[in-house]
Specification:
This protein has 92 residues and is mainly α. Helices cover 93% and strands 0% of the residues. The two termini are 54 Å apart.
Length: 92
């Protein structure tokens, strides 16, 4: 447990350093090139919309896959539970 705590604290420190560095770089770029801010906002908005569409489509596909596989798993389970009955009556 002690090693996890040690690596977690160093990982958090690295993460915060990189986050602050990235924000500082973005601020410097925005001050030097104001048009960048508009482009960055547009790109971020497009990214956000595509991410939302992907998440909803992914959830729907997972749900559909689970509903589709359900009868197969049910049939397989019933077959496995019935094997002992079939063997008991010698109907192999």
């Amino acid at each position: 447990m002690e090693t996890i705590d040690q690596s977690l604290s160093s990982s958090l420190a690295i993460f915060l350093t990189e986050l602050i560095s990235s924000v500082a770089i973005l601020i410097v770029i925005a001050v030097i090139t104001p048009a960048f801010t508009l482009g960055a906002i547009i790109v971020a908005a497009i990214y956000w919309v595509i991410g939302g569409l992907y998440l909803s489509a992914s959830r729907e596909i997972k749900r559909f896959e689970s509903v589709t596989k359900s009868p197969i798993y049910t049939q397989f389970g019933e077959t496995l539970s019935g094997v002992s009955t079939i063997r008991a009556y010698g109907q192999e």
